[in-house]
Q: What sequence folds into this?
């Protein structure tokens, strides 16, 4: 055993045996790293192993709640809800029709409201537009401006008519100019529809999904392609009517019950614009009861009083034969009202 020397204030220098203890039980908290292996062996019989640096004291979660972030979704939704309520729009009533409105940007909504106000739209008009087309609240001003530019420059809509055009067809505001509005405009102009400023409601429709199927239906029931295009050009509203809900029942009644010639529809495509139950059937039955045969414009375009008066005149006088040129004499359309 090795010996060590210690000084004593009483006996002076004296030799004190160094006590033996196991090095394996030592704890060196001040050591910051493990000693290399070649430094650990102190003798042939004894070695020590230094412990790793103890981990830092773990941090406990703060008991003080963190302030609510401005990006908190719930906070943003409440702010958006309150803003829309302040301008008279109920957000929840629009969610069912357009769920993405929940995630729309409040900054974009405010910008859209300000822009529409600068274009002359009143709060009631804007609320109506949102009710008919909730997507407007999820649009950016940078997407809306090109629509107004297109209507003014390419569709030839007058500035004073912009509000009327948009109020009549709010969906125009959410249509892409390149993908929808301009291709539809070119198609309508290509089939001969002039004065597009009077038919702007058609611009938001799809050529492939809406216009082509209706032209094909007219060809299916017996019209040539040229005649079908001619009918549409003279009465563009045909492109909007439902095939199943409008064309089919009215055409069946025209052919089966009325027994009319297809040529009459070619000359008067407006037939499809009248109500089957409230106008076509009642007036046709009245003509059958009185034994009178009126051309379609006379039977349908006149108001109720004019129709009854003409019916009485025909019943109290001799009716011209159908082969007579008098029976199909065209009346001045300005003197008739729907």
A:
């Amino acid at each position: 055993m090795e010996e060590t020397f210690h000084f004593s204030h009483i006996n002076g220098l004296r030799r004190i045996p160094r006590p033996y203890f196991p090095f394996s039980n030592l704890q060196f908290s001040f050591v910051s790293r493990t000693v290399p292996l070649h430094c650990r062996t102190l003798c042939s019989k004894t070695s020590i192993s230094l412990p790793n640096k103890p981990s830092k004291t773990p941090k406990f979660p703060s008991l003080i709640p963190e302030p609510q972030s401005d990006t908190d979704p719930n906070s943003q939704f409440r702010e958006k809800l309150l803003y829309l309520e302040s301008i008279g729009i109920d957000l929840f009533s629009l969610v069912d029709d357009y769920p993405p409105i929940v995630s729309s940007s409040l900054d974009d909504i405010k910008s859209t409201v300000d822009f529409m106000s600068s274009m002359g739209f009143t709060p009631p008009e804007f609320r109506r537009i949102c009710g008919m087309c909730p997507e407007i609240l999820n649009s950016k001003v940078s997407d809306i401006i090109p629509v107004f530019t297109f209507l003014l420059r390419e569709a030839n809509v007058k500035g004073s008519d912009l509000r009327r055009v948009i109020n009549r067809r709010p969906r125009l505001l959410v249509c892409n100019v390149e993908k929808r509005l301009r291709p539809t405009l070119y198609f309508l102009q290509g089939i001969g529809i002039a004065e597009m400023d009077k038919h702007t409601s058609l611009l938001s429709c799809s050529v492939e999904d809406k216009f082509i199927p209706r032209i094909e239906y007219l060809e299916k029931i017996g019209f040539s392609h040229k005649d079908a295009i001619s009918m549409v050009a003279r009465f563009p509203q045909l492109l909007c009517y439902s095939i199943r809900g409008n064309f089919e029942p009215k055409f069946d009644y025209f052919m089966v019950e009325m027994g009319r010639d297809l040529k009459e529809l070619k000359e008067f495509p407006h037939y499809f614009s009248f109500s089957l139950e409230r106008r076509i059937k009642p007036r046709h039955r009245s003509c059958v009861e009185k034994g009178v045969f009126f051309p379609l414009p006379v039977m349908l375009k006149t108001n109720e009083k004019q129709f009854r008066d003409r019916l009485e005149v025909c019943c109290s006088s001799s009716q011209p034969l159908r082969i007579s040129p008098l029976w199909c004499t065209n009346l001045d359309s300005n003197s008739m009202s729907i």
Remarks:
- The longest strand covers residues 3-8.
- The first helix runs from residue 37 to 40.
- Strands lie at 3-8, 12-17.
- The radius of gyration is 44 Å.
